[in-house]
Structure to design on (420 residues):
């Protein structure tokens, strides 16, 4: 044994000091292969109970109970597929469940085999072998069941929020609301009810059937004429439906499946109706502006472009600024704008906040100067001709809805440039 290697016979081992251990009893040929371990079963049982207590100390409480989390297995794989080959063995140095040592070839830690205080684990079939694997701590069974239930619902809910279905659905919904917007634009200035009677021809009062009231398609199928009296139907009707569908689609694309998308669509509906009513009749009905103020203040809790306080401040400033302007012009007996514009600006401030309201106010003035001036020159009218300022405010308000936050960000970057 001087400088050579010590060769052990089968069934022999070494003590700590190097002495040979007595031979272990080996089973007779044809006998039970596990007969040699019969004397070790009580020790194995006690060791497994000790390991269970140690592992239970590392478990985490969930709602007053302690648990030992199980690893998530792929479909068709059960516990018998878990082996001690390393797939469920901790890899990090100093991790729980195993002693680590440095290998001879480098400093990377490697797990030791069975040693003092450690017992081999039993595989699915056959004798005891390997090391005791410690499964990584994961979520508790109740949490795993909740996540599995949530995952089972995902295939039923996800199509509603899929962009490929959400955007076309928003556009179709906008077409339907565009048809209702035509009813408001026609009836509110005349003081008629928007509920009853049903849709009818403005010329002959003949009722319009449901298949004659399909957005866009009915106007094309009827070739722009009433089915009863053949009176031409204004192209404003399909244009309003198409514009409303485009606005709903733009809100869906800009804000996604969120409350902000629905609130933006509601604001677009009110702005388009008010702008077209003011363009045709030079009035802004209180039946739209006053509920719009309340809706704007209430919706400020669910949108990203403003806050409730900014919405309240925008509504107050939106009403105070034009009211002061009206009072100043009244001293010189000059009519600058109507009180409908005051309520409209308050509605814009409630929906968009004070920043959006200011952007809509100055943007409306700019649009009015350019578009109104071009109209007066083309029509040969003088400067005393009244212009629909509410229409310009609604157009600027729609622009502030989609591009207002980006505009203010760039404006603040110009005023406060970043340090070099």
């Amino acid at each position: 044994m001087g400088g050579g290697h010590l060769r052990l016979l089968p069934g022999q081992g070494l003590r700590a000091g190097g002495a040979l251990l007595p031979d272990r009893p080996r089973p007779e040929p044809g006998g039970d292969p596990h007969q040699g371990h019969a004397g070790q079963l009580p020790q194995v049982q006690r060791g497994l109970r000790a390991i269970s207590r140690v592992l239970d100390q590392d478990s985490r409480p969930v709602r007053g109970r302690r648990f030992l989390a199980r690893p998530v297995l792929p479909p068709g794989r059960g516990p018998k597929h878990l082996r001690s080959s390393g797939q469920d063995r901790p890899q990090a140095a100093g991790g729980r469940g195993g002693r680590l040592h440095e290998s001879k070839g480098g400093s990377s830690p490697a797990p030791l085999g069975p040693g003092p205080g450690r017992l081999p684990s039993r595989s699915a079939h056959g004798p005891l072998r390997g090391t005791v694997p410690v499964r990584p701590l994961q979520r508790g069974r109740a949490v795993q069941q909740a996540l599995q239930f949530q995952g089972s619902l995902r295939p039923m809910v996800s199509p509603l929020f899929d962009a490929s279905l959400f955007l076309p659905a928003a556009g179709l919904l906008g077409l339907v609301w565009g048809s209702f917007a035509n009813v408001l634009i026609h009836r509110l200035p005349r003081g008629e009810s928007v509920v009853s009677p049903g849709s009818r021809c403005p010329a002959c009062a003949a009722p319009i059937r449901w298949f004659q009231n399909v957005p866009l398609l009915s106007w094309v199928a009827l070739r722009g004429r009433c089915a009863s009296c053949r009176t031409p139907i204004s192209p404003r009707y399909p244009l309003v439906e198409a514009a409303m569908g485009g606005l709903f689609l733009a809100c869906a694309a800009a804000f996604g499946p969120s409350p902000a998308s629905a609130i933006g669509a509601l604001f677009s509906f009110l702005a388009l109706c008010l702008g077209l009513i003011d363009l045709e009749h030079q009035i802004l009905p209180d039946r739209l502006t006053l509920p719009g103020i309340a809706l704007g203040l209430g919706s400020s809790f669910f949108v990203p472009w403003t806050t409730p306080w900014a919405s309240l401040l925008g509504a107050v400033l939106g009403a105070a600024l034009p009211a002061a302007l009206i009072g100043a012009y009244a001293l010189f007996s000059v009519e600058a704008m109507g009180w409908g514009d005051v309520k409209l600006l308050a509605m814009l401030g409630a929906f968009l906040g004070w920043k959006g309201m200011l952007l809509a106010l100055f943007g409306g003035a700019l649009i009015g100067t350019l578009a109104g001036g071009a109209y007066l020159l083309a029509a040969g009218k003088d400067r005393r001709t009244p212009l629909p300022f509410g229409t310009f405010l609604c157009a600027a308000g729609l622009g502030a809805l989609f591009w207002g936050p980006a505009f203010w960000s760039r404006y603040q970057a110009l005023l406060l440039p970043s340090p070099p």
Summary: Residues 339-379 form the longest helix (41 residues).
